[in-house]
Amino acid sequence: MNIGQMFAKSINREIKPVVKPGQVDDATVKLELQEYVVTQELQKHFAAFFSNYRRGIGADTDRIGVWISGFFGSGKSHFLKMLSYLISDKEVAGKPAWIFPLASIFAAALF
Q1: Are 82 and 36 in contact (CB under 8 A)?
Q2: CA Rg, the chain, in Å?
Q3: How many distinct helices (H) and strands (E) make up the chain?
Q4: H-helix or E-strand spanning residue 92
Q5: Residue range 30-77, pLDDT digits in tens
């Protein structure tokens, strides 16, 4: 057995080095959602965001915003793009977008 055989997905598949906001064709969105790994740290950030988002929906103000900070290459754009798919209730390959990160969370819990 070689190292490449140890992974569930081919290590020779194309992995885009940069997440681009304008790339929203179905194939790209599906790939991004399938490849996105929701770690325990990301679970905390998603939970915090949606907790505040839920409170903000009923707020009587238009002064609501989100600040995403982190080092270069830390995944800020990727996180924001995933949030955009979830908030817009985007459908990909006949499934709601939230199914994909949920699968990642369950898979991480198994290992």
Answers
A1: yes
A2: 16
A3: 4, 2
A4: strand 91-92
A5: 888 888 888 888 888 988 888 888 888 878 877 778 889 999 988 898
d(CA 48, CA 1): 42
In this prediction the pTM is 0.75
Residue 20 CA: distances (Å) to CA of 24, 29, 57, 63, 97:
9, 11, 27, 27, 18
C-alpha distances (whole Å) from 103 to each of 74, 107, 109 are 22, 6, 10
Paired strand residues for 92: 95
Q: In which residue are the tokens 């929203």 written?
A: 24
CB 81, CB 32: distance < 8 Å: yes
Tell me the per-residue pLDDT of 67-105, one tens digit each, with 9 for 90 and over. Answer: 899 999 888 988 998 888 888 888 888 888 888 776 666
How far apart CA 59 and CA 52 sit, in angstroms, is 10
CA–CA distance, 77 with 56 (Å, rounded to integer): 22
